[in-house]
Amino acid sequence: MTLQAKDSQSSDDPFTVLILDNEVTVSEFVMSPPLSWSRLTEQQGACRIAEGYPSLLTAEQARFEMKNWDQVSLPAIVRHLKELKGGVDYLLIGNNAGQGLPLARSLPESIIDNHAAIIYGVSLPEIKEYEKSGYRTFFRRSEAASRLFEPATGAGRPVSLFFINTIQHNELNYHDP
Questions:
Q1: Which residue ranges of the chain lie beneath pLDDT 50?
Q2: Residue 24 DSSP symbol
Q3: 103, 130, 151, 164: which has the highest count of C-beta atoms within 10 A?
């Protein structure tokens, strides 16, 4: 497996949530008290925790993340997802006007069934396409963080967020929401 979400230095066992979305949406995951937050980037063929992480996801950190523009390779992310076998308790895929479909289709069925959801802004016109791939859990991005507490509490573990940016932004195509 080339996706390394767990921090090998940590002795705790958090309820690991992998978020595949774009950096503009990070503020939707800010809670009080703040959750543990790690950004994953591709390094030497693997997705690993970026330098300076984990941190706490505060409003200030979310503002910083909005302009933390990673190099994005959807084929590489798809490859990592196809190899995903463990280490992640739950996976959230941002729809982003249908841009999440190729990522959603790359997940193993065993993860889709009980460990994944599609998140969206206001509406989800692509819902039928996700349902064809086996997805049954959909909710607004603004509900995502609070929805994770039920399975994490059931597992008796604290939520820890891991994030992979899925949309390439730069000075030419970025707009501040």
A1: 1-11
A2: G
A3: 130
